[in-house]
Amino acid sequence: MDLIPSTILTGFLGAGKTTLLNRILQEEHGMRIAIIENEFGQENIDNEILVQDSSEQIVEMNNGCICCTVRGDLIVALTNLAQKRAAGEISFDRVVIETTGLANPGPVAQTFFVDEEVGANYLLDAVVTVVDARHAMDQLTQNEEAQRQVGFADKILLSKTDLVDAAAVETLKARLHRINPRAPIATSDFGRAPISDVLDLRGFNLNDKLELDPDFLKVEEAHDHDHDHDHAHCGHDHAHGEACNHDHHHGHHTDDIAAFVFKSERAFDPERLEQFLGSLVQVFGPQMLRYKGVLRMEGVDRKVVFQGVHQIMGSDVGPKWGENETPATKMVFIGKNLPKDVFVRGLEQCLV
Q1: 8 A C-beta contact, residue 134 and residue 164
Q2: Partners of residue 59 on adjacent β-strands
Q3: What is the pLDDT of residue 245?
Q4: Which of 108, 198, 257, 259 is deepest in the core (most CB within 10 A)?
Q5: Is 142 found in the same domain as 64?
Q6: CB-count exposure of residue 159 (10 Å: 0-12, 13-18, 19+)
Q7: In terms of residue numbers, what domain contains 138?
Q8: Is 179 inside a domain boundary?
Q9: Residue 242 counted as domain residue
Q10: Cβ atoms of 4 and 123 closer than 8 Å
């Protein structure tokens, strides 16, 4: 049986998650979507209206969508949904989990990889983050949760852009790009966003055998413009843009969560890389929000796709390198106060 594609819809309080979700549910798209209103942690501010006295309530709505309101364990909710689907009691094609506005998306995403039954039934398709263009600059400065939600995103949707001018939107986009340079940014004013901006993004899959989303690498290349520097002595370069230096003072905001990129045309020694990445995860795992890349490995004639969340890391063999493609590694790390120099030096030492 095919895995059930699942989307995590996150965003800070009042960003417009529910508005977006309601519009998706009203569209004539022919999909049957199970909605989980996720009460992860103690905060239930966004979803108070939907919470019932029972720990879980599943309601089938007129348009063929199923709403499952959860207070507590997401693993239990996902497992119950899968069991009822298998028994023919309910029917749905995909799942959307709407988190509370104060949620850290990390534990929600990890749910798909730490439980065997959930992993056997579901595929985490993407983390989609709605960002309030009117209030985001203050929210990002004052709330780490808002930064984490952006840092985890595979896709960012800007809402309320009608309430700010074009210059403010561009300033916000630049800041979002520094926090998470690989997430494409689109708009979702009044919940209006193509369903293709939310579902079936294939943005997050630890064992995806396919090539990474091309937008991921295109965004990196566009971001690197004047910041590449070549290291003739080691035969590779590790590009890094403004995202790397979150303590700089060029009129930018100093967000704790930032990203940096490592690139090299030299192959990795598999054993050395595995040991080094294992040590990184042990020491910095809680700070490593997302990491992802295409790797060139010695003795492997195909791309190796690599992804992780916090301490959960995985890789898989992907497609062959293209005829006109130069085999090379491109990795992005997104995290809180990560020591870029430690990561880069260690990765350099893992090269053949």
Answers
A1: yes
A2: 67
A3: 33
A4: 259
A5: yes
A6: buried
A7: 4-197
A8: yes
A9: no
A10: yes
Is the pTM above the cut of 0.85?
no
Lowest-confidence region among 23-37, 74-88, 133-147: 23-37
Q: State mean pLDDT over 153-178.
A: 95
Rounded-to-integer distance, Cα 165 and Cα 154, Å: 25
Domain stop point among 180, 197, 214: 197
Residues 30 and 175 in one domain: yes
Sheet holding 66-70, edge to edge: 56-60, 66-70, 33-38, 94-99, 4-11, 122-132, 155-159, 185-187
CA dihedral 84, 90, 95, 100 (to 10 degrees): -80
List, for residues 272-318, the tens digit of each pLDDT value: 999 999 999 999 988 888 788 889 999 999 989 887 878 878 888 88
Q: What is the CATH number of the domain that holds 270?
A: 3.30.1220.10
193 and 261 both lie in a single domain: no
Distance CA 4, CA 83 (A): 12
What average pLDDT does this structure show over 158-162? 94
Q: How many helices (H) and strands (E) does the chain have?
A: 10, 15
Rounded to an integer, the average pLDDT of 87-114 is 87
Within-domain flag for 270: yes
Indicate whether 207 pLDDT > 60: no
Check which CATH number belongs to the domain holding 129 and give it.
3.40.50.300
User: At which of 197, 220, 237 does a domain end?
Assistant: 197
Per the structure block, which two tokens stand in for 94?
């995909």
For residues 277 and 288, give the distance between their C-alpha atoms in angstroms, rounded to a whole number.
12
For range 228-237, the mean pLDDT: 29
Contact call for residues 112 and 124 (beta carbons, < 8 A): yes
pLDDT given at position 102: 80
- What average pLDDT score do residues 180-203 get? 88
Q: What's the rounded Cα separation, in Å, for the pair 253 and 247?
A: 9
DSSP class per residue in 228-247: --EETTTTEE----GGG-TT
In what order do the strands lie in the sheet containing 302-309?
Answer: 257-264, 329-336, 288-295, 302-309, 312-320
